[in-house]
């Protein structure tokens, strides 16, 4: 997070990424071993991807820990990493993203055939890992992996390709729960988690993605790009119509959409906290660290960052 006098660019406090990297270091080693076995370790895009820690792999690892499903801990988590890489490359390729965070994407650097070939490798790896999960007791794992991937792409398209007017708050919440929450429910199922594990994963994913959407709104220069996000749905409800010339930094001082958004997040987190207590999940567990950082963010935002 930036200093209290500036707009934050993340809800996470300094140090969280280091804690996560230390906790899941064995997963990185396993990812490296897999891509080396597949003969794609020297592919630049692969090296770049596997160095990234993905939230789905963290969720899978923690759900396995809570559920005491350690026999599938590594397989389930690594599978989610490659599922995430697949979705990311598909998004870059189909939406023709040539730059990301100011840097050229692999589509820009090497072209569509290159991206397609890496996608195919990730798909093959995901299929192999799904079979391993099924062999270790996760029923219908290959079908679940296919459904997770397809449903994620469908929901993401609905969210990103909304008309100029955003759906109602209720409809937008449903869309976002389909994007983040349902993907997280698949993660829980592929970690052999029960319905409580699904609710924990879905609630936390919804909260995290919603706060990220709020930060996305307030950190952009204008509102020329409209997506079906919860903050924008609340803003539209207040102003009637969102126009491209609106200044998000000024809007947040005048309207209550950030407050309404955080109320939604707090409600989701409250339910997750209660479920985690039932399972004696440690305060220093990664999921509780996520919750703690989000709670802290909402305590100081927006009053202190916009003073």
Output the CATH class name: Mainly Alpha
Strand content is under 5%
| Strand runs, count | 2
Share of helix among residues? 55-70%
Strand arrangement within the widest β-sheet reads 1-2
**Low-pLDDT residue intervals, each spanning 5 or more residues:** 1-6
Rg, rounded, reads 20 Å
The profile of the biggest β sheet is: 2 strands, antiparallel
Q: What's the architecture in CATH terms?
A: Orthogonal Bundle
Q: Which assembly state applies to the chains in this document?
A: single chain
Order of helix and strand elements from N to C terminus: HHHHHEEHHHHHHHHH
Please outline what is shown here:
Helices cover 69% and strands 1% of the residues.
Can you give keywords for this protein?
Farnesyl Diphosphate Synthase; mainly alpha; 307 residues; two-stranded antiparallel ribbon
Describe the structure.
- 69% of the residues lie in helices and 1% in strands.
- By secondary structure, the chain is mainly alpha-helical.
- The longest helix has 25 residues, at 195-219.
- Mean pLDDT is 89; it is low at 1-6.
Topology:
Elements: H1 16-23, H2 25-37, H3 44-50, H4 55-67, H5 73-94, E1 99-100, E2 103-104, H6 106-110, H7 112-135, H8 141-160, H9 169-189, H10 195-219, H11 230-239, H12 248-254, H13 257-278, H14 286-300
Antiparallel strand pairs: 1-2
Helix pairs in contact: 4-5, 5-7, 5-8, 7-8, 8-9, 9-10, 9-11, 10-13, 11-13, 13-14
């Amino acid at each position: 997070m930036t200093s209290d006098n500036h707009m934050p660019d993340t809800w996470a406090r300094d140090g969280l990424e280091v804690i996560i990297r230390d906790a899941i270091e064995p997963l990185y080693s396993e990812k490296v071993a897999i891509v080396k076995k597949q003969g794609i370790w020297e592919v630049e895009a692969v090296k770049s991807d596997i160095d990234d820690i993905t939230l789905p792999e963290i969720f899978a690892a923690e759900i396995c820990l809570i559920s005491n499903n350690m026999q599938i801990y590594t397989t389930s988590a690594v599978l989610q990493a490659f599922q995430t890489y697949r979705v990311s490359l598909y998004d870059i390729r189909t939406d023709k993203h040539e730059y990301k965070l100011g840097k050229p994407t692999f589509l820009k650097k090497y072209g569509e055939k290159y991206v397609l070939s890496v996608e195919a490798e990730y798909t093959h790896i995901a299929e192999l890992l799904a079979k391993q999960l099924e062999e270790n007791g996760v029923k219908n794992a290959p079908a679940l992996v296919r459904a997770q991937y397809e449903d994620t792409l469908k929901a993401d398209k609905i969210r990103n390709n909304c008309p100029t007017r955003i759906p109602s708050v209720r409809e937008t919440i449903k869309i976002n729960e389909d994007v983040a929450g349902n993907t997280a429910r698949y993660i829980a199922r592929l970690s052999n988690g029960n319905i409580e594990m699904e609710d924990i994963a879905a609630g936390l994913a919804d909260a995290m993605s919603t706060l990220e959407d709020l930060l996305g709104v307030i950190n952009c220069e204008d509102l020329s790009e409209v997506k079906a996000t919860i903050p924008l749905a609340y803003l539209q409800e207040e102003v009637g119509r969102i126009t491209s010339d609106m200044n998000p930094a000024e809007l947040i001082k005048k309207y209550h959409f950030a407050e309404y958004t955080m109320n939604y997040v707090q409600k989701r987190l409250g339910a997750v906290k209660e479920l985690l207590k039932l399972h004696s999940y440690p305060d220093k567990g990664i999921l509780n660290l996520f919750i703690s950082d989000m709670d802290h963010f909402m305590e100081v935002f927006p009053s202190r960052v916009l003073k």
